[in-house]
Structure formats: structure tokens, C-alpha cells
Amino acid sequence: MYEYYITRMWHHLCFTYNHNKKLISTFLDGELNNVQDFVLLSPVYGNWARLGQNFEARNSFSGDLSQINVWDRVLSDVEILDFARCKTDPQGSYISWEAGWSLKVVTPYNLSLEEFCQQKLGTSYFWFPSLPVVTAHYICEALGTELPWATSITDIQRLQNVSAATHPDHDNCHFNFWTALTDITEEDVWRMNNGSLVTNIFWAPYEPNGLRYENCAALSRYGVADISCEMQIRCAVCTFKKQQRFSLYGICEQELRNVYFVAYQRVIGQVIFIGYGKYHIRLEDEMWMWVDVVNNVTMAYMEEAVPYFPMGLRWWRLQVPVCDQKEGRRQLTLSPCPSGHFTCNDATCIPIHHRCDLKYDCRDNSDEYDCKRIFFPQDYQSHLPPRLSGDEDLSLPITLDVIMETIAVKTLEMTMEVAYEIAMTWIDNRLSYLNLKANNSLNKLDMEAVRRLWIPQVNFINTDNIHRTRIDEDVVMFIDRRRHKFYIDPAAPAEVEVYSGQDNTLTIRRKYGTVYKCNFDLRLYPFDAQQCEMHLRITSELKSFLTFDPDHSSVQYLSNPFLIEYEVGEVNLVHDNSGQFSEARVLVPLTRRYGYAILTIYTPTLVLLVVSYTTLFFRTAIFDVRMMSALTVQLVIATLFSQVLSRRSIAATLVSASLPKTSYFKMVDIWLIFCIGITFLVIIYHAIVDSVAYGDDPSTPITKVWQVRPREPPMIKSMHKPKITVPNLVLFTKITTPLVFFIFNIGYWGYIFSY
Q1: Is the Cβ–Cβ distance between 148 and 177 less than 8 Å?
Q2: Most buried of 164, 221, 489, 535 (most Cβ within 10 A)?
Q3: pLDDT at site 652
Q4: What does the domain layout of the chain look like in residue ranges?
Q5: 538 vs 46, 518, 576, CA distance in Å?
Q6: Which cysteine pairs are joined by S-S bonds (predicted)?
Q7: From CA 222, how far away is CA 152, in angstroms rounded?
Q8: Is 628 helix (H, G, I), strand (E, B) or coil?
Q9: For the residues 652-658, what does the mean pLDDT come to?
């Protein structure tokens, strides 16, 4: 509620209690501010009602009170808004402000109803005589405002009149005030100290005239004049359109009334900060003191600083323990910045999301100092895994994300070489995180913090050697801000947002290049489909402590799915908790690209088979040509087969040259064996045809004896004629050879396509 209070101003505060819903509602200036559960344990009586809490002086109220009324019913929101806007002035039905009160040690005065709602805070001024321009800028900006500037002679005269009326004895502050203008970055281009461009400047006659030697500006009697920044001192006046609230950070106060202050100027050149609660910050004997005025205790005094004002980050000497720290040096920040902003060391303000965003936003670069992201409790032990709060028997889920960038498969060695990134995400509820950003890349941890953390270890199982996740300079670790829920650390000397480790996660990423062993079944080569896997196992603890999260883990393959030999299918991630440790497998389906094998093995052998088959159409008389052609074809196919088996490929076996030796036949082996067999069959056919056609070799000199017999009848002669003729035999070879080929192919390709 202190966020909305402006001191020295009337506020309308109302509480309502609903007995049926057990809810208490708070209204500030007619608007609902808070609703919460509240149970009354006993009846409420008004015969002992008191204001100011004078039964305990230290907790008594300091301020003005009016319009104290109590009703025996719940007021509506409209009624409360009318009260706050001074439209009505009813008296309470249970306790009335107009009667029944005994006044003790108070000073009463009367106001009309309209005066409660006609409050206007005019412009106020703080005056500081004889300051250099740097100090003038610091003081006004650290007080939450800026130096003035004028657009007309009226603006100048108003400041002069206010100064003369407020401080008649300090005539050096009646004119010649510093302004917020400067052209130090670019000559004749005048800007405010925050960098904004200003054009409508009311220059005095013959001004500006200082060229590059006079880069600051002051208000003279006749207008704005440019003067030297280094050689001049002037009066600084800080103008306030509304009351500025200050916050003192680093004092571990839970009550905001002891954190908030308001600045007042009672003496020209000096400032006093009066807290909403018991604290004051004031200058005593030329030393800034932080004082508990209720208990009359000096909490701390400020060490020397330039300039010597308490606004911004300063070193203080504690006189009493603060935040469990004994007497001694401690940094505190007196900030003029509103909620949602960060206070630079010089007390200027930037949006808090600009802090620690890898670029300077404060003029003194202090927004990039002390950008640690993790707070480690004293009892944190990095060798122990975190446990989920509320259930000690529940395993901590580890989200596994695998991003595969490249894959290289070596069939001969039966390995898969993978370049990939592993990311693991988990919750560590023992930690607290500081100043988290929505962009997780800005929540990166340095190596010092990484080495202090508990990090799960994952082993890569199906590798030649012992491979595991590593923690080294290649690791990238950051915090994922899952919920934008935080509180401000009361012990920090700045606006430090603290996030819970229960609501936000840690993620570690690292790239690896690993060779995984695979088990290939090459029976269907080159029409085979294989599956290789990356076998991962958490070895930090048993599965009763740590498990891979099956619901949120994922795997991606980002590269071209078409490799030299294989086409990569859709990779999958499967989980296995059947053993002692939680395991995950990345399954990589591989389908062989058989086009090259068709081109270099099957097509040449098919052509050779056609050549072999065409020898059956040669004239039977040219036996040598028929046989030599068939033998040449068989020799070529046999050579091709031997090259495949011995892996000494030249051209036709480039695809199969990388095949490992196996104890079983592959489909390509069966094809080549069949090709050898069918060419061998053609050779046999040639021999049979030649034998039937010519019998013994006619070129061999043999003496023949002719036996003369009587002429047989035609019927008897036809009975002795041989049944197998050469044309029939040649026709038989021409039919059976393709028939064998087609029968084999039906079985061969049918077997392949069945898989």
C-alpha cells in the first residue's frame, strides 16, 4: 500500500469486511487495493476504539486524521468512491466522527469537505548555491528531477521571483542558474543531459557566442547564455512537479514504511530525508547519518564520497548490526527510482530489464557490474542431486534435447559418426536466481558458477571408449525464466529481483562429436534398411533419484537427410527405465540409396546376361564364337563377383566396396551367383547343342567302313530316326534360359519387397 501513498496529502482509506465470505477488502482513494481472507475470532466492540495507538508511543501514528466512521454493514463500491471524491459526507452508523471522541495531546483544526479533494501539489524547488555543473547535474538527477531551462522570459522571471521570496539572503541564487542544456557532444546542437534534443531555447541577446569553448548553459536575467563547463560555478535549482519518494536498499527491512523516504529542504544547500517510518537520513556535523529517531539510535554514517550526498550507491559505517552484519562497512543505495527501475551508482534510473543485458545503459556503466545470476545457500552441496519438494520418493525429471547436426555412416566399420548438441534441463529448488531476463541467452552463467553447480552426468554407451558429457569451456549453461514471479532482495544494496529455483530451470548445452557402434543386417543389401542408435544413460544417480523426462524430451535432425549411401528417416527418442539407471535411445532409421548399386552392379550384369543369352542365337556351326562369347561373359561376371567379395572395387563396385565381410550371403551376392550360374547354363547349352549337331569332331581323320544292306521300307526307316533334333534343342535353350531368369527374378524381388 505504501507504493501509492504521497505524503503531505490527504488519502481516503476504507476497509470492508464481508462476514459471509470471510473477506476483508481495502480501498485507497476510492479504488480497490487488496482483497484477502480474514476470520474474526470474536465479536468486535466499539466502546474502546482509539486513534493514534497512544498505548504504545513507538508505534503511534504521526500525521493528520479525519472522517473516522464505522458502519454495521458492508458499504458498496459506489458509496466508497463517492466518499473518496467528497460527493457525500455520511456519518457512521456504529461509530461516528462527529461525536463520542476524547481528544488527548492532539491539535484539532477544521477543513471543509471540498478541501479534502481540492489538493494540488504545485512545483517545489530545492536550491544549491555555488556548484560546478557536474555536481549540479548529479544532485538534481539523484533527487529524481533535472535542472530547469527556459523557453521565455516568463520562465526566468518566475525562478528569480521564487528564489528572491524563498531565500532573500542568498542573492547569488536570484539569477544565473545552471540549466540542463549542453552541446558538448556536437557543437551548436543543444541537448538535455539525458540526450534529448532541444530547439526552442530562449537565448539572451548575442548568445550563444562561446563557440566550442563554452558548452554549458545558464539562465541569466535576459535569457539563456552559453558558458564554460569547467571554469564556472552557478546556483543549481531542482524543480519538482510532484513529491519524490526515495527507497533505501540494503537494510533488510520487511516493512516498506521503513524503506521509503521523502526529501525536504529546510536550509538552502541542504537536504533531509524523512522516512515513512522511524528512520531519517540527515546531515549532522558535516556528516551524513542514518538515524532511528524513534529509538534515538544512529544506525550508520556515510563515508567520504564525491560529491558528498547520500543519493546513489555509497559506503556506510554501521554502528549497529544490520542484516546479520556486525558493525563495519556496508554498501547502501538511496534511490529516487520508481518500481521496475534499476538505480545506477550515480542515482540515475534505467528500466530494470536493461540491467545486465550485455550493453551499457547507465552513464557510469554500473548496470553491468555484479551480474551474477545465482545465489548459493550456505548448505548447498554440488555432489548431491536436488529433490523435488513435497515428495521425497519422486525422481527428479531431466529433460533431454538432442539436436543432430551431421551424420556420417561407415558401413564397413559398422559405425555412425554424429555431430550433435545435447541439452539437459532440470529444476534445482535449492537455488535462487537473480535478475532473470525473458531472453534466456542473457541468463548465461559463467564458468565459476557452472563448476559450483550440481549437473547430471550422461554416459554414451555404444561407443568404443568411455565417453560421457563433459564440463569444460565449451559448455553453455543458462537459466530458463519460466515464471515472471519474483521479490526484491531486502539485503541487496540495489534493486535485485530474486526468482525461485522451484519455478525456473537450469539448462546446460554442449556440442559433441561421437562415433557410435551399430549392428547392421546386410542380408538385403543393397535394398536393406538399417537402424543405428545413440544409447544414453544417466550415471549420476540411480533411476530412483534421476530419470529422463519422457514428456518433454525431444530429438531433432537438422541436416540433409540424403547421405552418400543412406537416407535418414524420422529420428525418434525412446526411454528405458527397466535397468538400474534411466536410459534413452535416439533411434536413427537408415534406408540405403540403391540407385548407384542398380547402376553399377545390376545394370552391367543384366547387360552381360543379355549378351550371354544372344549367343544362343548364333549359328550352331560357329561353336568357337558361341563358346568364347559365353565364357567371356562368365569371366567378367566372376571377376565382378570376386571384386565385391574382396572389396577391391574399381568402378562397378564402388557402392559395395565398403561392405564388411559377413558369414551369410547378401542379396547382391545371390544376384551375382545367379548371373554366373545362368551364364554357365548357357555354356552347357552350347556344348549340348554342338554335341547333338556334330557328334564327333569331323576334322579328325577316321576310316569309315560302309555296310551295304538291302533297302528298308519307309515305315521301318522312320522308326529309327532320332527324336532330338538340333533345331528343337536350340529352341529349348532359347525358351528355358529366360524362363529360369524370370522364375528367379520373381522369387528374388518378391523376397526383397516382402521386407
Answers
A1: yes
A2: 489
A3: 39
A4: 1-120, 124-240, 245-375, 396-592, 595-696+722-752
A5: 67, 21, 11
A6: 337-349, 344-362, 356-371
A7: 10
A8: helix
A9: 44
45: pLDDT strictly greater than 90 = no
CA distance to 267, 402, 426, 455, 596, per residue, from 508 (Å):
58, 12, 9, 8, 42
Which residue type occupies 364?
Answer: D
Determine the 3-state secondary structure of 226 from DSSP.
strand
What DSSP line would sit under 115-151, residue for residue? HHH------EEEEEEEE-HHHHHHHHHHTT------S
| Residue in the structure block whose three cell numbers are 532320332 | 722
Find the mean pLDDT for residues 130-141.
Answer: 92
Q: Which residue has the cell 572395387?
A: 649
Side-chain-side CA neighbours of 579 within 13 Å: the count stands at 12
The bridge status of strand 546-548 relative to strand 396-410 is parallel
Amino acid at 644: V
State how far the Cα of 71 lies from the Cα of 19, in Å rounded to an integer. 13
**pLDDT of amino acid 712:** 57
> What is the separation, in whole angstroms, between the first and last Cα of the chain?
74
CATH class entry, domain 124-240? alpha beta
* Cell numbers representing residue 569 in the block: 528417416
Strands 341-343 and 260-264, how do they pair? unpaired
Report the distance separating Cα 415 and Cα 464, nearest Å: 10
Separation in Å, CA 334 to CA 303, 439, 498: 14, 29, 20
* Predicted model pTM: 0.78
Mean pLDDT over all residues of the chain? 86
Superfamily of domain 396-592: Neurotransmitter-gated ion-channel ligand-binding domain (2.70.170.10)
Query: Which residue in this structure is represented by grid cell 519387397?
Result: 753
Check whether domain 1-120 has CATH 2.60.120.200, yes or no: yes
Chain centroid to CA 507: how far?
9
CATH no. for 595-696+722-752: 1.20.58.390
pLDDT score recorded for residue 445: 94
